[in-house]
Amino acid sequence: MRVILLSFVFTLNWVVANSQSPTRNDNALERKLQAALANFRGDAGVYVHNLRSGKIVAINADTLFPTASMIKIPIQCGLFDKIHTGELKYDQELTYKDSLHYDDGIVGSLKEGAKITLSKVVMLMETVSDNTGSLWCQALAGGGTTINNWLETNGFHQTRVNSRTPGREANRNRYGWGQTTPREMAELVTYIRQGKAISSDASEEMYRNLGRQYWDNDGLSQVPPDVKTACKNGAVNQSRSEVVFVHAPHGEYVYCIITKNQKDESWTRTNEGSVLLRTVATTLWHHFEPKSTWKPAEGYEKWW
């Protein structure tokens, strides 16, 4: 009787563990994504997690890639940690100085002495990916080392800020502003979505910021405009990247795709990396929403 009971308990624990853990592979989706990546001239990694079914697809998902502007998600986390501890206030007024200038984005176009609230700088960092504003936020968060410590403490061991971070010059030369894996970046957005980053209220505001994306011409363009998404993307000459949380009708899913060592370094809509981002987004949408007949309006691409 004891043996039978122990066997029953073991079996029950196994069933519970496997039903709650996203370890089951979606083989059908993996075949579709492998086909999409097959002729890409460069390296690509994809991680997909369907939160309803628990199924995943991981293709080079633990390989290090450049973050490009996706690093602005960890920067936001570091900044909100400072707000949570009372070192900063979200609505505090900041004074712009010319010494902060990095490029001629919105924040970089401000005049010396101009006033702007921290919340607006954060919004510009996440929404239009303002670089001067993002570097300002990085400094206010305590710098790359402080942000990296937060990442490590919260279980993100591969995602790091490299630029303007002591001891990470070699990493900056190789990966640029930041580095991550497709799995970790998708999990970081999920962490925020689930209210686990800093606090539930901080996570909610950070997630709202990620839901206001100006750069919607790649993966987001392949999701119906009435479907809620949270997103951050990035681009440098040899890399394109995007992390997207989709509130799909039949279940939420999150994915991250990153490329590196691209042969195509063009800055047009037909760039191979950009095309791949759209292809992956389309593949995922129709895989998870097979009855959907939606597609981008004819001529949509002309706006980009």
Helical segment count: 10
The oligomeric state of the chains shown is single chain
Strand order of the largest sheet: 1-3-2-11-10-9
Q: Count the beta strands.
A: 11
Shape: globular
- Fraction of residues in H or I helices: 25-40%
Q: Tell me the name of the CATH homologous superfamily.
A: DD-peptidase/beta-lactamase superfamily
Q: Please report the distance between the alpha carbons of the first and last residues.
A: 70 Å
Structural class by secondary-structure content? alpha+beta
Indicate the CATH class.
Answer: Alpha Beta
Instruction: Please state the CA-atom Rg, rounded to the nearest Å.
Output: 20 Å
Range of strand content:
15-25%
* Biggest sheet details: 6 strands, mixed
Q: What are the segments in which pLDDT stays under 50 over at least 5 consecutive residues?
A: 1-20
Properties at a glance:
alpha+beta, Beta-lactamase, 304 residues, disordered N terminus, 6-stranded mixed β-sheet
Question: Can you describe this structure?
Answer:
The structure is a single chain. With 304 residues, the protein is of the alpha+beta class. The chain has a single domain (25-292), classed as Beta-lactamase (3-Layer(aba) Sandwich), CATH 3.40.710. Helices cover 39% and strands 17% of the residues. It is built from 10 helices and 11 strands. The strands form 3 sheets. It has a 6-stranded mixed sheet, with helices on both faces. Strands 4-8-7 form a 3-stranded antiparallel sheet. Strands 5-6 form a two-stranded antiparallel ribbon. Strand 10 and strand 11 form a beta hairpin. Helix 2 packs antiparallel against helix 10 (272-288). The longest helix is centred in the first third of the chain and has 19 residues, at 2-20. The relative contact order is 0.16. Mean pLDDT is 93; it is low at 1-20.
